[in-house]
Design brief:
With 338 residues, the chain is α/β, with parallel strands linked by helices. The chain is 40% helix and 17% strand. The chain has a five-stranded mixed sheet with strand order 10-9-11-8-12, sandwiched between helices. The chain has a three-stranded parallel sheet with strand order 4-1-5. Strands 2-3 form a two-stranded antiparallel ribbon. α6 links the parallel β9 and β10. Bound molecules: glutathione. Glutathione binds next to α6, β11 and β13.
Length: 338
């Protein structure tokens, strides 16, 4: 298993080096659309609605970049990727960025040669089991069958957790979230393990969510965020500062509802720079002064996006927790717009 992972990594590193010199901003502008790699379907994060329009927290991160660069949040081609196809899609240039519950790790950053531009969701790995199993802790899963997606940090953490606790499990390897949920529903695995956010999102799609429990253990750190290829710092800056703009807008109370008004009459110098009223930060990243204003108009600030797709008033019901602003005791902290 380890060797497969290693050889896979080396192959991708070669690909990434070949694609690294491209000026992605020019490509995106010439094409007129942003190719954004998302997952194949995780409710609340990225999934097509009944009319086939992609919706979700990760989808809005793509739309924000398209608003900044192309002046059109709809100018996105969503490319569904599974855990095992996502890195090839990015390294080969099939997509301009990935926005799909991907954990920032050492080897992905260095060996696979990707650039994580920040964290937009601080997560951790959890377990879901049918309530009928009467299991109250992951440590009681000795001998269980566990559905696990190949090519994820999840499968590596799972092995660590069971080894550390001196218990055994039988992995049921699967490729996509949909397949995992089918197998889980059919009883082919006793437990499903993945990022806790995706567990909550998946449970919300069940007919009777209350028949399933998410166990208390969080066995890893999963800092999730958008990523681009190494070697195109200008493009990385655009994707990074789009994320920062969403986070800063929430911190400073700039919303989709008041952004137009604030760009006329704000008295806060940081907001004035963010919205391009003072200075021209956009010009420093190859965009115009109003790039961040468009980002916020597209789908609102970070807090609005979170609340709309995955927050406590949605069926997914995630609390802000670690993903609260630093001013509210969380970890979200936008760098200064100066
Ligand atoms: N954060 C972990 C896991 C990410 C992951 O891909 N999780 C699965 C389980 S929810 C997923 O998103 N699948 C999406 C899909 O099947 O399209 C990683 O980066 O390796």
């Amino acid at each position: 298993m380890k060797r497969t992972v290693l050889f896979g990594a080396l192959g991708l590193a070669g690909l990434a080096a070949g694609a690294a010199s491209a000026a992605t901003l020019d490509d995106v502008k010439a094409r007129g659309t942003l190719n954004c790699g998302v997952n194949t379907g995780v409710a609340g994060f990225a999934a097509p609605d009944a009319s086939g329009n992609w919706q979700g927290f990760d989808v809005d991160a793509c739309r924000a970049v398209a608003a900044a660069v192309l002046n059109d949040p709809q100018a996105v081609v969503f490319v569904p990727t599974s855990p095992s196809t996502r890195f090839t899609a990015l390294a080969s240039g099939e997509v301009d960025m990935l926005s799909r519950n991907t954990t920032w790790t050492f080897s992905r950053d260095t060996d696979l040669k990707f650039e994580f531009v920040g964290v937009n969701y601080y997560d951790g790995q959890g377990f879901m089991v049918p309530k009928a199993l009467n299991v109250t802790s992951a440590k009681e899963l000795d001998g269980a069958t566990v559905c696990i997606q190949t090519g994820t940090t999840t499968e590596l953490n799972l092995a660590d957790f069971f080894r550390t606790n001196n218990i055994s499990y039988e992995p049921v390897p699967i490729e996509t979230n949909a397949e995992a949920l089918q197998q889980y529903a059919a009883g082919a695995c006793d437990a499903y393990t993945t990022d806790a956010s995706a567990l909550a999102a998946s449970r919300a799609t069940f007919e009777t969510p209350d028949d399933h429990v998410i166990l208390p253990e969080i066995i890893s750190k999963e800092p999730l965020g958008p990523l681009v290829r190494h070697g195109d710092n200008d493009w990385a800056d655009i994707v990074r500062w789009t994320l920062m703009a969403l986070i800063a807008a929430e911190e400073y109370g700039v919303t989709s509802a008041n952004v137009s008004e604030l760009s006329e009459n704000t008295t806060n110098p940081e907001v004035a720079r963010l919205l391009g009223v003072e200075d021209n930060l956009g010009g420093m990243i190859g965009l115009d002064a109003e790039w961040a204003k468009r980002v916020i108009m597209a789908g609102g600030n970070y807090g609005e996006i979170f609340a709309r797709h995955i927050g406590e008033n949605t069926p997914i019901g995630l609390a802000r927790g670690l993903n609260a602003q630093w001013t509210d005791g969380g970890l979200l902290y936008a760098m200064p717009f100066r």
